[in-house]
Each structure stands twice: as C-alpha cells, then as structure tokens.
Amino acid sequence: MITLLHEQRQTRWPEAAARGDELWLDGQAIEQATGWTWKPEGLCRDDVCVPLPRAAEGEFERDGLLNLAALWRRSGQPVVHDAASRTWVLGTGAAQRSAALATLQAPDFTLPDLDGHLHQLSSYRGRKVFLATWASW
Amino acid sequence: MPVWQSLFDELKDHGFTVLAVAMDQPESARPWIEAAAPAYPCLIDRDHHLADLYNLVNVPQAIWIDEQGRIVRPPEIAGSTDAFRAMDRKTFAIPDAVIAEHKRIKTLYFDAVRDWARRGLASVNALDEGRAAARLQLPQATIAEAHARFRLGRHLLRQGQADEAQAQMAQAIRLHPDSWAMWRQAAAKNERGLAAGPEFWARVDALGARHYYEPADIADPQVQ
After folding, report:
1. What is the dihedral sign for C-alpha B211, B27, A90, A108?
2. What number is the average pLDDT over the span B79-90?
3. DSSP bridge pairs for A50
4. B153 with B186: CB under 8 angstroms?
5. Could you read off the pLDDT of B115-173 as tens digits, one per residue?
6. What residue ranges of chain B are covered by domains with CATH 3.40.30?
7. DSSP state for residue B120 in the 8-state scheme
8. Measured between alpha carbons, how far is B210 from B183 in angstroms, rounded to an integer?
C-alpha cells in the first residue's frame, strides 16, 4: 500500500500507483487525498482551477490517471517520498503558504487535545484568540 | 504556562481565549499538561503542522487573532528572552540585571496581551493590516520542502523506519537551519526530556549576535 500525506490528510492507495518519482492516481483518489477535483478544465478546489500543463503525450495524464507528483512539482510545491516510494508527502509550496498568510486571515487547522477531542481554530470565531505554542523539548 | 492560565482566568469573560498548541509528541506533553491542568484548550501538534502553516521556528511563538479570524499580530516570541544565554554554565547563575530585564520584557508582553483582550483594535499593539502585513515573515521554497521532509520523517518514525526517518529530519534541518523546533524535536533528549546537551549549546553559541528568541517589538500600553 501507498500512504499519501497532504496537509492533515492521510490516505492509502494500491501499491501500483507509485513508481520511482511518479504517482498515478484517478480523480476519485486525488480528491480524497488532496481535496482537489480533476475536471476537464484542470485541477479545481473551491473556485480555483489550475489548468493541466501542455505536455508530451502521457507525461501527466494516461489511461484515466494523473501523475499527481509531477503536476505537484510543476506547480512549485514539494513532493517527497521514502526510498521505497511507499510513503509520500505532497507538501504545500512557499508561494501558496505566503499567499494565504498575506491575506492575514489566520490559516485554519484542526488538532486534537490529549483526550483526542478535535478543536478547530475557526470555531473560536467571535472571540479573540491568543494562539500560543510550547513544547517539552 | 501559569501566566497563560492567569490570562485566561482574567479575560475569558471579555471574549478572549488562550489556545495552546504543543508542538510536541503526546506522551512528552502529557505530564506537563496534567500537572498544569489548564482550563483553556491545549492541543497536540505532533507533526508541527502549525509551524508549516504559520512559518514558525521556535516556541513560545504566539499569534494574536481577532474575532473575525484576522491576524492582528503575526507570529512572534511570546515574552521569552535570551537571558538563559547569560547563564554561568557551571553554577547556572544568571546576572541580576539580566533577570530583571527578562522580567521587564515578559511583563510588557503579557500586559500588552491583556490590553488587547480588553480594548481590541484600540490597543496600540493590535496592528492594522498594513503594519501586520509588513511584519509577516513568509517562507522560502527550502522551508516548504523542509516541512514536507519533517512530516515524512515523523511519519516514518512512527512506522518504525527509524534510520530513514532520521535521514529525512536531518535533511529538513539542513534546509531550514533557523528552525529550533525541528532541531530540538529531532535531537536526543536528556533525562528531563530536554534537548539541552553540548550540541544544543554549540548551536546556540553559533548564533553569535543573532537571537535565539527574536525579541517581539511591543509598545508599552501604559505609555501610549
């Protein structure tokens, strides 16, 4: 099995999806793994669509599958995997992080407390939030 | 942190909350949380997702977020100082003047949080959009890759692939040398759970004139 990590998502896919630096997934898998939807106009999320680049036949798209790793890299975002190509991280690029921060809207997240209860930053709207980090180390 | 608890107790009825995030492993954070028994939410971020989202490099960094979810102070060090660097490493003594300055800065910072909690945008330290944007520190491509490798490393470590995990985290640290959070999370810890051995001190010394805790630029609410 392939494990794919993106933001806080963790999904698993059949072994056949990955070969070296290539990661071939169908539209349903891409949506579950990343939240992006594969449409005729490109990869879309919310109101944004990123057109698939013009490329040599079969470089990004083949037999109903997309080489998501190649597309991800092409958009300037980090793709890293272990030596066996079984665990992959599709990171978020610096430009995408920077654009989100520049809006000054606090990037949302959901994290557990010690008891496993999930807390979402945006559920504290209406209050001032002093978001403070610490660690034992 | 006791000071966070007193802030919360004092200001929770003023539409204010502390949201604490441990960039840490749950088993390491647990004894501290259980001892402090905080009344405010205390979240666990074992893969340092927050550091990736907000471009954080150390703890305690804090972000002030208003009622509409807008950042009114981008990430900054929340009241800590480099006082520990003036410590005599044999006797652990810190000069009185350094301690006094540390206390002054800590008090100033938390008084500023109180002032903002009570007065909102009228607080001198609540930054308007222009000033807040000017203070944002935005990540470079190397930092984005460092976070991806750190995430992979933490995951592989949990899967029992320790060697590959360490290699990924070492690469992350090379890509993002300013991140103390990555370095200390990955480093060997002493019996008290601290990454505070000779390698830590060598890394601190190598900072030279640069700060370990970058000072926050806080205006004194009493003076304005």
Report:
1. negative
2. 95
3. A43
4. yes
5. 999 999 999 999 999 999 999 999 999 999 999 999 999 999 999 999 999 999 999 99
6. 2-135
7. G
8. 17
Helix %, strand %, coil % of chain A (to 5): 25, 40, 40
Question: Which parts of A17-107 are beta strand (E)?
Answer: 18-19, 22-25, 37-39, 42-45, 48-50, 61-62, 65-67, 79-81, 87-90
Any A CB within 8 A of B54 CB: yes
Hey, which CATH number is domain B2-135, 2.60.40, 3.40.30, 1.10.287, 1.25.40? 3.40.30
Listed by number, the residues of chain B in 106-145 with a beta carbon closer than 8 Å to a beta carbon of chain A are 113, 116-117, 120, 129, 132-133, 136, 138-141, 143-145
The dihedral sign for the CA sequence A119, A120, A122, A123: negative
Residues of chain A with pLDDT under 50: none
Ramachandran category for residue A80: left, alpha or beta (phi over 0 → left; psi -120 to 50 → alpha)? beta
Q: Terminus-to-terminus CA distance in chain B, angstroms?
A: 28
Assembly ipTM: 0.97
Q: What share of chain B is helix, strand, coil (3-state, %, to 5)?
A: 50, 10, 40
Per-residue model confidence as pLDDT tens digits over B199-223? 999 999 999 999 999 999 999 987 7
Binding-face residues of A in 1-40 toward B, CB within 8 A: 3, 5, 7-8
